[in-house]
Amino acid sequence: MYQLIKKLLFRVQPEKIHHVVMRGMKTIYALPFGKNVLRAFCDVKTKGLERELFGLRFSNPVGLAAGFDKDAKYIDELACLGFGFVEIGTVTPLAQPGNDQPRLFRLPADQALINRMGFNNEGAAAAAKRLRRRKSNIIVGGNIGKNKNTPNEEAVSDYEKCFHALYDVADYFVVNVSSPNTPNLRALQEKEPLKQLLHHLQLLNAQKLKQKPILLKIAPDLTNEQLDDIIEIVQETKLAGIVATNTTISREGLATPAATIAEIGAGGLSGLPVREKSTAVIKYIHQRSQGSIPIIAAGGIFTAADAQEKLDAGASLVQVYTGFIYEGPAIVRKICAGLGR
Predict the structure, then answer these.
(1) Are residues 256 and 238 in contact, defined by beta-carbon separation less than 8 angstroms?
(2) Alpha helices in 249-321 (DSSP H)
(3) Which residue, 254, 275, 253, 245, is CA-closest to 105?
(4) Cβ distance 43 to 333 under 8 Å?
(5) Has 321 been labeled as part of a binding site?
(6) Where does substrate bind (predicted)?
(7) CATH of the domain at 287
């Protein structure tokens, strides 16, 4: 059914149809028995998939990656689709429009997306306000970043502001220094600035009555030497774990014509082309750390087999984004059913 509907949806500009579909789902949810309708088609019935991680209990290991519900507008509706957790953001201290449109592009031949959204969001305070009103008890992660106009030398302050704004309403945090769409952001993945940022956040965390898990989201384009530095820093700062991985800046091996790719221009590539690279990063981190670092996997997960590949590589949880768009709202139910078997 969804594959037929998808043909119509894919005729509309990606960012526009995203808002149309999500507003439609919100309308259905608000109707009498609306949430029952959503759950009937999408909710996960498989038992035995619960996970305990970071001191949190996940109803199943399949979450929604950051970038889909940037401003926490659809948490209750997404909970009805069976997700074990939802990660909002990336959230910045101040609202910002992001990059110029169009900034989201489909590559159907590759089952992929290219985006250069640029952390468009309404700011940390707005996201926190919505999370306080949510009715579901689904686990929510807060993916945090810096504003575009904040120089890297002052980035720590932006992450601190987001941490404080979301502390009471987020179950865990993800530090995003790996998006390719904010100028110079990836420079924060270098050893010294990253160590400084994470040490500061953990110091703030230690001052709280109840500490929240803080994870680091990394790019799939890091060298093994850079991954070794990441592992060392995560262990030194006692972070809760790693999200692997963000989008890639690589364009290797795509079926989409090179001229089309050149016309689209800059942005992060997600979807099936990232699957192997993401799995390789997860396997490397898991082996080098001797399994001591919990990993949330993201990158090219469309099916139960894709999810199992990530789990076998060393991940504890998985996240979907591009797969959700290509496979439809029943993706969580299908993946969980496959994992259950």
Answers:
(1) no
(2) 258-264, 275-288, 304-313
(3) 254
(4) yes
(5) yes
(6) 70, 115-119, 176, 181, 246-247
(7) 3.20.20.70
Q: What is the separation of C-alpha 274 from the centre of its chain, rounded to a whole number of angstroms?
A: 14
Q: For residue 159, what are its two tokens?
A: 């992450």
Taking Cα atoms as reference points, which of 198, 76, 204 lies closest to residue 140? 76
pLDDT score at 209 = 94
Six-digit token pair at 161? 């502001």
Q: Token pair of 57, please?
A: 């209990």
User: What does the pLDDT read at residue 224?
Assistant: 97
Task: Indicate the pTM of the whole model.
Answer: 0.97
User: What pLDDT is attached to residue 78?
Assistant: 97
Task: Tell me how far apart the alpha carbons of residues 301 and 13 are, in angstroms, rounded to a whole number.
Answer: 23
- Rounded Cα distance, 175 and 239, in Å: 10
Contact 174, 217 (CB under 8 A): yes
Query: What range does the domain containing 249 cover?
Result: 2-340
Residue 179 bears catalytic tag: yes
Helix (H) or strand (E) run with residue 217 in it: strand 214-218
Q: Which residues pair with 296 in a beta bridge?
A: 243, 317
Instruction: Name which of 243, 165, 238, 154 is nearest 202 in CA terms.
Output: 238
Report whether 100 belongs to an annotated binding site: no
Q: Is 247 labelled as part of a ligand binding site?
A: yes
What is the per-residue pLDDT for 104?
A: 98
Is 83 known to sit in a ligand binding site?
Answer: no
> Which pLDDT does position 42 carry in this prediction?
84
Distance (Å, whole) CA 183 – CA 30 = 40
If the chain, 341 residues long, is cut into consecutive pieces of 10 residues, what is the mean pLDDT of each piece?
93 98 96 91 84 97 98 97 97 98 98 98 98 97 98 97 98 97 93 97 97 98 97 98 98 98 98 98 98 98 98 98 97 96 86
Considering the candidates 59, 136, 178, 179, report the single residue annotated as catalytic: 179
Q: How many domains does the chain have?
A: 1
